[in-house]
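[agent] plan:
  1. take the single chain provided in the ticket
  2. run structure prediction with default settings
  3. attach structure tokens to the ticket
  4. add a short note for the reviewer (M.T.)
[agent] executing step 1
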Amino acid sequence: MRKFLTLLILFTSLSFAQLLNPKLVLQQNEHDFGDMVQGEEVSHVFVLSNSGGGLLKINNVKPSCGCTAAMPEKTELGPGESTNLTVSFNSKGRRGKQKKIVRIETNDPENPQQIITIKGNVVVEKANNDAQPVLKFSETQHDFGKIEQGKVVEHTFKFQNTGKSILKINDIKTSCGCTAALVSNEKIAPGEEGTLLVELDTKNRRGKMSRTITINSNDPKEPTKVLTVYADIQQ
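[agent] step 2 finished; step 3 output follows
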């Protein structure tokens, strides 16, 4: 009986310790830029989240070559917080299929190093991109600041189709059920503007939090856009 109790206490202590540890979660670990013109510099935003119970520290971000750069907006994430990691690739002097990796080193005790991958195909001659749609947001982040617990707050992101063909919003995903997003129109003509209403429900939430909204469209250059909202929930 004493042995059983000892094992139970040990198991409970280990489980509790794991709950208190930071944990890095990548919402996406790979991105394909598709065809890009030689000399062009492209970038993509990856979302990093802390799903653990302790403070997550991003100690280092190491691209595999000098043609790739990566910089997180925040290097410390509290439980439930997220940050954007912008990865850029310069295709100058490159040709053909490319595959590069970025190593992310953190204080996550179970997985201290994670890898994200970017791919693409560098072409010499420019394709005819005149008739393509382009999704452009005027802002990609919004901080609600301090909010009383239980309140529902909302913010409207504005975007525009700066391309020369119809922009189609194919899908919108939120990182948690407490967040809702509604687009004004799923099809936007060239030169026209649209809005994306984001609603955040703070019921049963507390402390600092961040949530993401991922938009998928027929923009061939950047089919995926990520928006982030922040809040500090007060009791």
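[agent] step 4 note for reviewer: Helices lie at 2-20.
[agent] ticket updated
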